Amino acid sequence: MKYIAMFFMLLSHLAQTGFLYSLGEKYFALADIFVLLGRISMPIFCFFTVQAVIYTKDFKKYILRMLVFALLSEIPFDLAIFGAPIYKDSQNVFFTLLMGALAIYGIDYLWKKNLNPILKILAILIIAFIARNLALTFRTDYKHNGIMAIVILYLAKDSKILTALALLLAFHFEFEMGGYAIPVTYGFVYLAIPLIMLYNGQRGKQNKWTFYLFYPVHLLIIYLMKLLFL
Hints:
Layout: H1 2-16, H2 19-22, H3 28-38, H4 41-55, H5 59-82, H6 93-111, H7 117-138, H8 143-155, H9 160-170, E1 174-175, E2 184-185, H10 192-197, H11 209-229
Antiparallel strand pairs: 1-2
Helix pairs in contact: 1-3, 1-4, 1-11, 4-6, 4-8, 5-6, 5-11, 6-7, 6-8, 7-8, 8-9
């Protein structure tokens, strides 16, 4: 599923970075399709962020990896998307997933504590509110929508039916792709639901570094392609 998500992310970024659109009008329709198909990837990444927080053996190492690659990915992200090595008004999706992971770790910790239920709910709302506003303040990719999606998926983690409903709720919003594509409704995002429903809870054969490396490397390659072809 992670490889599927990476594939659709690649398609989206070929369009979102402006590469396909800049090749000429004959590529516009293909680019729009790639943008739509790319919506499949984010729900999968949010879902597996929840899984990682629940099952990781060392949360500190997991968060450290996320932070390191968020920092390493920022220049490739800015170059590919905005054409500049530093662009302060938008940060890459690793920061979104990192903030979401920290939020649900805090929520999970409090939920397991023997506290008054009302205090628990209040604390959870406060954590979600802080994470949501941090994402807005730092303008991370998907901003507050990504944070709330991760929190909602965490709350629904014990049931596939609730997870499907959480996906319907969490991604019921619209997003305009950087001015390159038509305004896109997230109807295509729901194509991720049957894929996630097929998840059997077992880890497949994979190299854990593949996704971490793929994100900055593919963005850097797209930027180099823009330089070469455009």
